[in-house]
Amino acid sequence: xxxxxxxxxxxxxxxxxxxxxxxxxxxxxxxxxxxxxxxxxxxxxxxxxxxxxxxxxxxxxxxxxxxxxxxxxxxxxxxxxxxxxxxxxxxxxxxxxxxxxxxxxxxxxxxxxxxxxxxxxxxxxxxxxxxxxxxxxxxxxxxxxxxxxxxxxxxxxxxxxxxxxxxxxxxxxxxxxxxxxxxxxxxxxxxxxxxxxxxxxxxxxxxxxxxxxxxxxxxxxxxxxxxxxxxxxxxxxxxxxxxxxxxxxxxxxxxxxxxxxxxxxxxxx
Amino acid sequence: xxxxxxxxxxxxxxxxxxxxxxxxxxxxxxxxxxxxxxxxxxxxxxxxxxxxxxxxxxxxxxxxxxxxxxxxxxxxxxxxxxxxxxxxxxxxxxxxxxxxxxxxxxxxxxxxxxxxxxxxxxxxxxxxxxxxxxxxxxxxxxxxxxxxxxxxxxxxxxxxxxxxxxxxxxxxxxxxxxxxxxxxxxxxxxxxxxxxxxxxxxxxxxxxxxxxxxxxxxxxxxxxxxxxxxxxxxxxxxxxxxxxxxxxxxxxxxxxxxxxxxxxxxxxxx
Lengths: 269, 270
Prior knowledge:
The complex is a heterodimer of chains A (269) and B (270).
Chain A: H1 2-35, H2 45-57, H3 60-92, H4 94-107, H5 116-123, H6 127-151, H7 155-163, H8 168-206, H9 213-222, H10 226-254
Helix pairs in contact in A: 2-10, 3-4, 3-6, 3-8, 3-9, 5-6, 6-8, 7-8, 8-9, 8-10, 9-10
Chain B: E1 2-12, E2 19-29, E3 34-38, H1 45-52, E4 60-66, E5 74-75, E6 81-84, H2 96-100, H3 102-106, H4 111-124, H5 140-152, E7 158-162, H6 170-187, E8 190-195, H7 198-204, E9 207-211, E10 218-223, H8 238-267
Parallel strand pairs in B: 3-8, 3-9, 6-7, 7-8
Antiparallel strand pairs in B: 1-2, 1-4, 4-5, 9-10
Helix pairs in contact in B: 7-8
């Protein structure tokens, strides 16, 4: 009896966030209909749903979403690989760390979005520009987290490895890098977040004919197709949530020890 | 292996902020004996065995590790010893078997060979079936066994143990102490065992070296001539009680001094 009540409470707790979203959408629909608000100003959720369906069937939504996703992954891959590489090298060379630190300190606070006009002059409004702007932005959190992870490696673990016969290279590869993995993954999470932002922003600003969700958003709003704007926003929100969830899932696979900090109590012997 | 410590000193920091940790410590830790180093918190006993293990450098004095049979050949510090750490320092991302096999892996022993040897050692410390668990999935006592197995796999003649059982609950501690006595009586390694527990020092040691409060010096050395194999029942014996009294009186003043030092350090300069 007690157990059942507890299970019911747990299901209620899990369903609560979904319920609030459902209630919000319902209230929105009701309010738009009751007040007769013009769809050009605020379309009803049902109208947005219909629009989503139409754009999916005619292929425009998958096309634009696909383009945006490819750009996000390309920008993220470039930023992730170069950021981790530089972070690791900084961890191994004091000289490089000093030099790179100065550059990072100077460039990190600059809002990367302000580089868009310059990049358009240099690279035009094609793919290169969108990938560069998102990669440059995501590069900083990745390199900073990677280097921080390496610097914060538990000194005791290093001494232990040396005591057990590890040479310098082995200390790096067998202790320093694995110990920095949680921090590197945290940097990649931050990097992914800004990559999504910058790709969509770049599509909004530069993308006259290159497509993408950002382009869809801005072109729909310019012709007052508000339903399309909302449909694009919904797709963007859902895609972003899925990407973040997938990344969290991957993190658990890569570094399971980080996610079980509490010892499971097992009987002695 | 004899460990001959001659006038070893260690100072942390320099100038006005210099803190002396060890002051002219001299002692011969006998080959194939279990010596307990007993002292109040912060007396430099951990520092001393880290210096002996080649993991810290002394600011003065020197240490010789030598085979009593060939006493003219002095060995490199750290080459013959392995440490069991107070906080264990297990690698959290490695499974039990990969933690235990770490030292062999560093030496380039191929995987099947090192897994075979690590597996046998894991079984001998009672962890069969837990090879693929990570340290975070184990209880404190089990982690302790992993740390012990990881040190034992290298089969170095000197085992340095830095308060390895301090964090364990009372019952697990007893089990681990018996485990250590069993290992010592079987392998007769030279063991240096740092502790601040008087009972533990007498129960385990052939000899108890009592250190002073900071800066650490050797206050006295007490031979423990209790018969082996020993077990916990010994604690109730008259001889044990007499030894306990003797050590207790030696260490009491030092503990008081250490407490005052700590109180001053927390209060800071007026």
